[in-house]
Amino acid sequence: MTVPARETIYALSSGSLPAAIGVVRISGPQAKAALLAMIGRVPAPRQAAFATVRDPQSGGAIDQALVLFFEGPNSETGEDVAEFQLHGGRAVVAATFNALSKLEGMRMAEAGEFTRRAFENGKLDLTAIEGLADLIYADTESQRKQAIRQLQGLLGNRAEAWRRRLIEALALVEAGIDFSDEADVAADVTSRSLEAVRALQQEIAAVLAEGRRGERMREGLVVAIAGPPNAGKSTLLNKIARRDVAIVSPYAGTTRDVIEVHLDLEGFPVTLLDTAGIREATDPVEQEGVARARARAAEADLVLWLMENEGANPVSRPDSPETWTVRTKIDLGSDQSAGYRAEEYAGGSSRPEQRHFYELSAVSGEGVDRLLTDLTAYARNTLESREPALITRERQRNLLEMTEKALKRGILRGEEGQEDLFAEELRLASQSLGRITGRVDVEDILDVIFRDFCIGK
Ligand SMILES: Nc1nc2c(ncn2[C@@H]2O[C@H](COP(=O)(O)OP(=O)(O)OP(=O)(O)O)[C@@H](O)[C@H]2O)c(=O)[nH]1
Ligand SMILES: [Mg+2]
């Protein structure tokens, strides 16, 4: 049976049209043939050429373009790659696609397919690809920095170095097993190996203990605005977002769904949620809204608990790790505010809420800046650190946890002198480590990873 030749793929790799420039990329064995058919030559690799792009059947001019050629394996995908930098008109790109589709062995690329080929040709490991996806989706400066570090191999290189050390330790154990009739040699080799594995296990445990900073940076901190109906939650959200995102009305029970706004607080990503006012609702739709509000507040990193005055606060607060109390509508200057002090709202709880008590008016704007300043400091304190986060995804964390557990089990076996079982655990550990970078069988997870990419990437 002959393996069919690899198909050549093409796609628009730039943004939505019309635009100043539309970049059409081609990757695969037919890239050169496509260039010959459409511009009559293959430009020197890595040198921009100005050319008239023609329909290969009619010979009619489609556009004038800047054309690049990268000869495999020295290209992004590792295959021959051609790139047309066309004028970014819809008809221009459509005519170019039409011309390409008529050539032998060519088809449109699927989402993420260029990057997948780069992976398959050993150009990028999985952690770098995850970094690349994060770079494309980064909204804030701190997210961008984390993503570029990951793309440059922060975790990938570490995981590979760990794996090499592990394989050396494994080789020692296996050597010990071969010498098992010479008890002294075997014991010595096992103890050297144990020492190396203990050091490795401790290093990995320390990385796992750092918490989920990297994952939170990717996803953004979640801050939920919650409180009784009519407290002014949606008004505050709109004020902070500087646009009319949520409906505001004097009727209690206006907001039903959870509304999200993504904020960039001096480079740190924060997702602000507006939720339904929490009360004993009778309307089934409102009941659902209240249930959602409670659930999202409970999962949030921080809850801003809004209330207008004392009397309007009979409802129970959702249990969340951190809550700041915000008194709203201070422009109304109601008498109810007399004697209003933070201590009264600590509600007997031991949480140190007094430090985070705010009074503001979302209408006049008074007090909003102080809240925003503190939110920014909170995001910075939570996300920033001198050491960049090594783990940025659940996938990486799970595999590293599996590695660490196998090492721990292995150490026990080694200490008991069960070299065979020790070696087996080290093999399992090295498999988990290898799956982080994609060195060992990862076919099952590839689709999940590349699903995040757009077509043309
Ligand atoms: N004077 C004054 N009125 C405000 C302020 N904030 C909100 N309001 C008014 O209070 C009413 C309720 O505001 P919303 O923002 O809809 O309140 P909510 O907490 O989202 O209410 P639900 O979605 O029903 O839970 C509206 O009439 C707002 O205009 C404020 O700071 N000052
Ligand atoms: Mg509302």
Automatic annotation (TrEMBL):
Cofactor: K(+)
Binding site residues for (6S)-5-formyl-5,6,7,8-tetrahydrofolate: R25, E83, K123, K457
Membrane-spanning segments: none
Record keywords, A-Z: Cytoplasm, GTP-binding, Hydrolase, Magnesium, Metal-binding, Nucleotide-binding, Potassium, tRNA processing
InterPro entries attached to this UniProt entry: G_TrmE, GTP-bd, GTP-bd_TrmE_N, GTPase_MnmE, MnmE_dom2, MnmE_helical, P-loop_NTPase, Small_GTP-bd
Cellular localisation: Cytoplasm
CDD domains, alphabetized: trmE, TrmE_N
GO terms (BP aspect): tRNA methylation; tRNA wobble uridine modification
E.C. code: 3.6.-.-
Main location: cytoplasm
Molecular-function GO terms, alphabetical: GTP binding; GTPase activity; metal ion binding
A GO-annotated cellular component: cytoplasm
Domain of life: Bacteria
Quaternary data: Homodimer. Heterotetramer of two MnmE and two MnmG subunits.
Family assignment from sequence similarity: Belongs to the TRAFAC class TrmE-Era-EngA-EngB-Septin-like GTPase superfamily. TrmE GTPase family.
PANTHER family referenced in this protein's UniProt entry, alphabetically: TRNA MODIFICATION GTPASE GTPBP3, TRNA MODIFICATION GTPASE GTPBP3, MITOCHONDRIAL
Name the UniProt record assigns to this protein: tRNA modification GTPase MnmE
Species whose genome carries this gene: Pseudorhodoplanes sinuspersici
